[in-house]
Design goal:
Layout: E1 2-6, H1 10-22, E2 26-30, H2 33-40, E3 47-51, H3 59-68, E4 74-80, H4 84-93, E5 97-101, H5 105-118, E6 125-128, E7 131-134, E8 139-142, E9 147-150, H6 153-164, H7 172-180, H8 191-204, E10 210-214, E11 218-222
Parallel strand pairs: 1-2, 1-3, 3-4, 4-5
Antiparallel strand pairs: 6-7, 7-8, 8-9, 10-11
Bound molecules: calcium ion (CA).
Length: 223
């Protein structure tokens, strides 16, 4: 699961990002409203932590754009105690939750976990055809053979993304953004190599599922 933290106080952003990474989330940060909006509109995030007072564009403007563009991410706003009016406005626009500054990092993490667990798209077990992927343990099982294999971190992110979008063509760019992050240099990651590791593991446990390359378009998980 990938989270975007938009917060201009870099020290706070870093604390939040570090703690979320400890919790096994993928995290990107933005330190101003313009970059925050740009990243938010990529629609690769499951959740966005959004400060209200930001340079260039404020958090409420960003939230409005997120909603106008049908971005699926949950949004938790960060607000100062005095900004009650902003808080009400934000709920009107569609924020999922608020945390008032100053906050304990544990409280914010708890709110994040609540939002992501209440997301009905997110389950502990992802299934497609004869495959079953346990999100907590990173274990992939073939239900036909009952064989299991452990999936390393980056391959796991890739597999999770493919299984969530099964039988749909996903472009290379979408995969890079989702699995490696939007700031990544495409050339530096060898997607083909990771896909071939995954295909081997799927085969080893006896699954019939295939990750097909679709010429000039991308990849598709199918039977
Ligand atoms: Ca701020």
């Amino acid at each position: 699961m990938r989270i975007l933290v938009v917060e201009d106080e870099e020290a706070i952003a870093d604390v939040i990002a570090t703690k979320l990474r400890d919790e096994k989330y993928e995290v990107d940060t933005s330190f101003d409203g313009e970059d925050g909006l740009y990243k938010a509109l990529s629609d690769i995030y499951d959740l966005i932590i959004l400060d209200i007072m930001l340079p260039i564009k404020n958090g409420l403007e960003i939230l409005k754009k997120i909603k106008e563009n049908d971005i699926s991410a949950k949004v938790i706003m960060l607000t100062a105690k005095s900004q009650l009016e902003d808080k009400l406005k934000g709920f009107d626009i569609g924020a999922n939750d608020y945390v008032t500054k100053p906050f304990h990092i544990e409280e914010l993490i708890a709110r994040v976990n609540v939002q992501l667990r209440s997301n009905k798209n997110h389950k502990d077990i992802l299934e497609y055809s004869d495959l079953s992927l346990n999100i907590r343990t990173s274990t992939l099982t073939c239900k036909l053979t009952n064989e299991s294999i452990n999936i390393p971190y980056r391959e796991f992110l890739l597999l999770e993304y493919l299984m969530c979008n099964k039988e749909q063509i996903i472009s290379k760019e979408q995969i890079y953004d989702k699995v490696w992050g939007i700031d990544t240099d495409y050339e530096s990651n060898n997607l083909e190599a990771y896909l071939s590791f995954l295909r081997k593991k799927i085969k080893i446990i006896g699954s019939k599922v295939n990750i097909k390359a679709v010429r000039n378009l991308g990849y598709k998980m199918e039977m």
